[in-house]
Amino acid sequence: WLDSGPNTDEYRTVLEQTTHIWTTIASPVAVSWAIGVLEAAANSSCPDDVARTAFAVSTIERARQSYGRARLHERVEIESLAEEFGLLPRHFDMPDTERDVWSELDGKLLGLYSLLPRAAVLLAGRLSKLSSVQVKGNDDKVATPGLRTLAERADYFIVDTWHAAHQATGGIDAVRSRDRQILPQQRGVTGFLRALEAVLTR
Question: Helix, strand or coil for residue 141?
Answer without folding.
Answer: coil
